[in-house]
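Subject: two folds for Thursday's group meeting

Dear M.,

Sorry for the delay on this. The cluster queue was jammed most of the week, so I only got both jobs back this morning. I'm pasting them in the order they finished. Each block is the input sequence followed by the predicted structure tokens. Could you check whether the formatting survives your parser before we put anything on slides? The first protein is the one we discussed after the seminar.
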Amino acid sequence: MIQNPFLLLFFLLAVECVILRLNSRAETKFLFKFLPAVFWIFFIPMLASTFGWIYPKAPIYDQIIHLVLPVCLILLLIPVDLGAIWKLGRPSLLMMSAGALGVMAGTPLALFIFKNHLPADAWSGFGALAGSWIGGSSNMIAVKEAVRAREDLFAALVFVDVLVVYLWMGFLMTCSAHQHSLDRWNGSDRRVLSDLAQRIEKQKRDHPLRVTWKSIILVVGFALVFAQASGFAASFIPEIENGLSSFAWLIITASLIGLLLSLTPARRLESYGASKAGDFLILYVLTAIGAQADLTHMQNIGILILTACFILIIHILFLGAAWRMTKVPFFLLATASQANLGGVVSGPLMAEVYQPGFAAVGLLMAILGNVVGTYLGILVSYFNRVVMM
């Protein structure tokens, strides 16, 4: 069993680099057709921990999470173009909001219905899942750490997340062939798509990437300074007993600082690899969380899947109601749903499947979810806790 902290650091880094390398090669990309790279980056350290190859209780994992996570959040939020999101258009923002509200309403309702069959601390795990289903993986990890969700519960919900979201994604992709029929039945006004196309053209800017190892180091160093400032600011905020811990305040503060920096010239750091560095580091945090988990405690997986499916149904009902009332194209329903549930990978992909050339719409919608996902996920966690009392 590996217990040396330096060997553990190297092992986690090696897992991430190998998976990302395989995912980038055309000849091995088929390995990730059904289960994405992010799943394997989490799952392999979890397997190693379960079989006793690495020590699951090593302090180095928490040190990675507490040091790196605030840096990730700042790096991922610095490039956000809030102005472009706002210009995305009222129909797009409305559908994205409907999808998020569906997750926010469905999660505590599902826990209330199934609470007698769920673990007592399921409120925290499903709060993290809500963060993911409103924003993305970075939000899921941030909420998980903020509400102190148990590692094995979180591990089970990562599996549930992938299973449920990808099954729903497959169904939505099938519906793309029938979008015109669905829009005729709904009486949808497809002129909205023309308006979106014009906005996409206006939003295109020339931002040539100038990413080098030196630029990455400088960008990460910049984010690290503000992460430390976030920790300093959070230290003055009192903890809420049985509520927000000091680390939860750190996550909230770091996210806020990242958003504030996005309104300054610091947003230009995206050209030097800010989001690329953030993506890499958030996956490294995920390996550390996976290493703390244990597959032997996944006996409640059936009820977790059932609960997640109930949340998905409420999410669909909210989106369906908004689609019927606003008469927007089905394209926006499908894209908003995947921008919520799947984040910055699935949102653009779904948009491109429905309307080639519209990936930017899915990306901007997913970024909006990423901006609010952590805050709303923490809020949902406490709604969950109330209904499970």
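Second protein, same layout:
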Amino acid sequence: MTPLEMSTVIAATAVSSGTPILLAGLGELVAERSGILNLGVEGMMLVGALAGFATAHATGSALAGAAAATGAGALFALVHAWPTVRLGVDQVVSGLALVILGAGIASAFGRPLVGQVAASFHPVPVPVLSRVPVVGPVFFDHDPIVYLGLLLIPAVAWFVARTRSGLALQVCGEAPRFADVAGLPVERLRIRATCFGGALAGLGGAWLSLADTPSWVDQMTAGRGWIAVAMVVFSGWSPGRLALGAWLFGGLVAVQFRIQAFGVHADVYLLKMLPYVCTLAVLVLAARGRWRLKLGAPAALGRPYRREGPE
């Protein structure tokens, strides 16, 4: 295999492997634009992966599994949205509780599914485009969930920046009091945005259990939910840069399996550790006030709001 062919394979794998992070990250980006910080992405992905695999196993339909995963993720996100938006519960505490709850549910109810087989998604090459050198294999020879993730990049960017609903969402994240005075339903918009984020996180989890593996493995998300949260911050809440970050992570995953072909000797465990170390560094920087401003974080991110005033 020539270096160009090897690079093409790695790039194609990067796009595919980055899909769960891309989907979960885009959903979290929309939620955070409304002012809601949801650290429970990992838990929502696990619940989505479980719901998707269990449904596909029972019905024999991967599409039904993806739909179930999307719905399960949205409902699980509501568990976070309702108390944080309506009751003013601390968003960090609620998000961490969601991770623990999601991991427990996935482990408990997923145990009987270990070793089972379910319907799965397979690559569907796009006619003509998939045969274009380099670009074709990288972007147009994947399964339907990967294609959906690619389409969502410009769709989310357009929604947030160009539509009235997207601009209203941004006002809720920047100045909820002003949005309330302007007649915008702040609580309703925040809840909807959080549930949308949960739906995409659930779908990202379904990709792992219905396309990547496809089987049920306990804790199969392996920290991808945390990576997605970090990518949102690292991208400066930009869908385009978020996609690049997700593909970078996917590329690191691809290199882990193919780096020996280049004749490079590297510690595999070190390669596996690097994405998570980068995630930790990004989260530490994001916690510093001046970095939050530089990265363009929504001003009211993580702060509860009630009509009588912020808490």
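Two things I noticed about the second structure. The mean pLDDT is 88. The first helix runs from residue 3 to 17.

Cheers,
T.
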